[in-house]
Design goal:
With 332 residues, this protein is mainly alpha-helical. 68% of the residues lie in helices and 2% in strands. It contains 10 helices and 2 strands. It has a two-stranded antiparallel sheet with strand order 1-2. Helix 3 crosses helix 4, helix 4 crosses helix 6 and helix 9 runs antiparallel to helix 10.
Length: 332
């Protein structure tokens, strides 16, 4: 009886929170932004407690993701299968917490425990993404699979739909109302815009060409191959770095052969992957042997020559070793 009462109370609280979320979107956005910005100011404020810093950075991301899902499901339902949705939810959560798990493992379990956690997380992510490609027929998987919801776009599309028409219950098609119709001589015979989720939501398109499947598979298994090479050659060696770079370039080259068939969301993800190649200058051993001194020299020059640049350049220089050691991995 006590468990049922607690469950009933929790259910009522959840429904009240969901209703409040839907009725106060601007307030929710302001709260989320405040919490997220506060997390940036915690770096270095707790001594050497990197776990607390990572926790304060991770929680706002999870909060935003949780609220986005409530808004999206409550207003629009889901356009993908239940299995696909659950996989993407788990992958998105793991994307947000994996660094926190690694920092915790390093402190609680030591270096061996840290590498065990890293291997488990990357194996899980690779397996889930391969399921999306081979079972759910996604050609390109987003990172994270559920990006932050574009709430302004959602509000604009839904406001336009509410003012000018209504949607059919089964198909979701937007139908123009008679009252909102203009005179025939000035009427634009165009369909109303559909109420968008605001996600760069990936639709499942059959990966008909083996080259597309191979390109995405190379990208997905790259973290596992990098970890395997790392265990054989050791940390901060050139072989894992070169292997990862080669796999990235091979994957992008295969994708470049099929760019005309991609949707806008897929093109955006490919552009993000191209841009991420710049991160290789921040990854060991290239960073240790080639780019570190140049980066520090550039930051020092900026702080001495550009007015007020020191306020940004010096904190970046102070925190750069921690960021490079924590975030710039081949598998992230």
């Amino acid at each position: 009886m006590v468990a049922e009462a607690i469950s009933c109370k929790m259910s009522k609280m959840f429904e009240s929170y969901k209703k409040w979320i839907m009725e106060n979107p601007q307030l929710i956005r302001d709260i989320e932004s405040t919490v997220k910005w506060m997390s940036y100011f915690t770096i270095g404020r707790f001594g050497n407690s990197s776990f607390i810093s990572e926790l304060t950075y991770t929680m706002p991301n999870l909060l935003i993701f949780f609220n986005d899902r409530l808004i999206s499901i409550n207003k629009y339902g889901s356009k993908i299968s239940e299995v696909q949705s659950k996989i993407k939810i788990w992958l998105t959560v793991v994307e947000y917490v994996e660094t926190l798990l690694e920092v915790w493992a390093r402190k609680a379990l030591g270096e061996s425990g840290r590498w065990l956690v890293i291997s488990f997380v990357q194996t899980f992510k690779a397996a889930m993404r391969l399921i999306l490609v081979y079972r759910c027929k996604e050609r390109i998987t987003l990172n994270p699979p559920f990006p932050p919801l574009n709430r302004e776009k959602v509000s604009e599309n839904c406001a336009d739909r509410t003012q000018n028409g209504f949607s059919l219950k089964r198909s979701g098609m937007v139908v123009r109302s008679v009252r909102s119709s203009e005179a025939p001589e000035v009427r634009k015979w165009e369909p109303l815009p559909q109420c968008s989720h605001g996600y760069n939501q990936m639709t499942s398109y059959p990966a008909s060409k083996n080259s597309l499947i191979l390109a995405e598979t190379l990208y997905i298994i790259k973290p596992l191959l990098h970890l395997g090479c790392l265990s054989l050659s050791g940390e901060k060696q050139w072989k894992p770095w070169l292997l990862s770079l080669t796999l990235d370039l091979m994957s992008l080259k295969l994708f470049n052969q099929e760019t005309r068939t991609f949707t806008q969301e897929e093109k955006t993800e490919i552009f993000r992957r191209r841009l991420s190649l710049l991160l290789y200058i921040m990854r060991s051993p290239f960073y240790d042997k080639c780019s570190r001194d140049k980066i520090y020299s550039m930051l020092k020059s900026l702080s001495q020559t550009v007015p007020f640049a020191r306020l940004i350049a010096e904190p970046v220089a102070n925190h750069l070793p921690y960021w490079q050691d924590t975030y710039f991995y081949m598998w992230s």
